[in-house]
Amino acid sequence: MKKILLICALLAALCSSAFCAKNPSDYYWLKIKPVRQKIWKGVKGMEQYSSRLDYYKPIQKTSDAAIIVCPGGSYHHLGMGHEGKDVALWCCSKGISAFVLKYRVSGNGFHHPAMLQDVQRAIQIVRENAAQYGINPKKIGAAGFSAGGHLVLMAAEFSGQDELAKIGLDHSVTLEPNFIVPVYPVVSMQDPIAHVRSRKSLLDSDQSQERKDEFSMELHADRIHCPVFLIANKDDRTVDYRNSVEMDKAMSRAEVAHIFVLGEKGDHGFGMGNNDFVHTTKWNDKLLLPWLKEIGAVK
Question: What digits encode the pLDDT tens for the residues 6-39?
Fold first, then answer.
C-alpha cells in the first residue's frame, strides 16, 4: 500500500508569499443553514439522548462524497465552531456534503461506549439515506479534531465492534468509514504521551493497562482498511505530537494507505477556523483537497 510522508518543509513552502494572504476564504461567510436531526429519535431506550447530526448541503454540489465531522474537546466538550461548522462550510465550498456530529461527552456525564455509539449511528444514518442525500454510500468519510481525531480512528478500527447491535438496533450497512482525516489527534492512552484529560473523559475510572491498550489506536492500526490523512504540529502544546508520529509508524508497519503531514509550528486547535495558521498554510485547500481528489472522494 502506498504511504506518503510530508514533513515540515511542505508546510513551510505553503507559507511562501504566494500563500500568505491574510484575507479569509469565502467559505467562512457561506449562508448555509444546517438541517438538524436527533440521531436517536425513535430508537427504543436511546430517545433521551440529544446527540445530533447537523447536515450542511452544498449550494453547488459537485461531489458524491460526504464527510462526517467530529469536533474535538478532550471528550469533555465540543468545539462546534472552528472544528465543526467551519469544517462543514469548507466542505460545502468544495461541493461536498457535510454532517457535523454533536456526540455525547463526559461534560454531560458520558463515557465509552457513548461516543462510539454516536459515530457509528451517524455513519449508519448517512449510509442508509445516501440516495436521499445524493451521495455515494461508498464515499462516506469522517474528519475528527483532537479527541474527535481519536473518535474517527475508533470508527475505522472498531467498525467490526458493532455497538448498535449491542443495543438492539438492526441495520444492514457497514459501519466502517471509507476514509478518515484525524487532525492533531489524540491517539495513545499510554504514558507519557497520552492526553490525560481525554483518557479520563473516555475511560472514566477504569484506566487499567488493559483498557489503555484497548483504546490506544496505534496498537490496532492493522484494523484500518481505508485511506487516512493525518496532520499535526511539533509545537502542539495540548496533545503531544508523538501521538501522530506513533500512529504514522503503526500505519506504515500495517501498510495502511496514508499521508502524514508534520509541521514545525502551528500548535493545536486551528481546525478550519478564521485564524493565521489556516490562512497562511491553507492546509485544507493545498493538502487535504488534493488528497481527497487522489483517493477519488472529489473530482
Answer: 544 455 444 433 333 334 457 988 999 999 999 9
**Angstrom distance (rounded) from CA 12 to CA 280:** 9
Tell me how far apart the alpha carbons of residues 13 and 103 are, in angstroms, rounded to a whole number.
Answer: 36
CA angle 209, 211, 217 (to 5 degrees): 105
Which amino acid would we find at residue 5? L
Which cell is 99 given? 454532517
Tell me which amino acid residue 210 is: E
CA 299 and chain centroid, separation: 21
Question: 258 pairs with which residues across the strands?
Answer: 3, 228
How far apart, in whole angstroms, are the C-alpha atoms of residue 236 and residue 184? 8
User: What would the pLDDT profile of 146-205 be if each residue is shown by its tens digit?
Assistant: 999 999 999 999 999 999 999 999 999 999 999 999 999 999 999 999 999 999 999 999
The secondary structure of 169-216 as a DSSP string is ----S----SEEEEES-----STTTS-HHHHHHHHTT---HHHHHHT-
The three-state secondary structure class of 224 is: coil
Residues of 98-135 as b/e, b for ≥16 C-beta within 10 angstroms?
bbbbbbbbbeeebbbbbbbbbbbbbbbbbbeebeebeb
Residues 52 and 39: their CA atoms lie apart, in Å, by 5
> In terms of pTM, does the model score above 0.90?
yes
Rounded CA gap, 36 and 58, in Å?
A: 15
CA separation (Å) from 69 to 14, 17, 295?
A: 25, 31, 18
What gap in Å lies between CA 169 and CA 204, rounded to an integer?
25
Q: Which residues pair with 5 in a beta bridge?
A: 260
Residue 177: per-residue pLDDT? 98
What local confidence, expressed as pLDDT, does residue 215 receive? 98
